[in-house]
Amino acid sequence: MAENSSCCTPEGPCHSGGTDVQVGEVTTTYKVTGMTCGHCEGAVSSELGELAGVSSVQAVAATGLVTVTSKAPLDEDAVRAAVDEAGYELVGQAA
User: What is the distance between the alpha carbons of residues 68 and 74, in angstroms, rounded to a whole number?
Assistant: First the structure.
């Protein structure tokens, strides 16, 4: 076995390629009322996705939970305004 071919070295095979985890990103889950279907999920996701720094949004009508990943913590007033613009109500951060 050649020296430095171990996975335990920076040159090893487990250190090649990219990673799906973005360092410094923040994931926050919010409770939103009024969503009942996929259209609702899309409307909320679209509005929240336009906020500066947001990299992904996952809305689930069945639970009323919306998970937002962003570069930094979001201002809750901005999140509330975006959810309101979509036609729904932000309850607040989910516990």
Answer: 9
Q: What is the pLDDT of residues 6-65, one digit of tens each?
A: 444 444 444 444 444 456 899 999 999 999 999 999 999 999 999 999 999 999 999 999
| pTM of the shown model | 0.74
CA 69/CA 55 separation, integer angstroms: 6
CA-to-CA dists, residue 59 to 23, 47, 62, angstroms: 23, 11, 9
pLDDT per position as a tens digit, 61-74: 999 999 999 999 99
CB environment 43-71: b (16+ within 10 A), e (fewer) = bbbebbeebeebeebebebeebebebebe
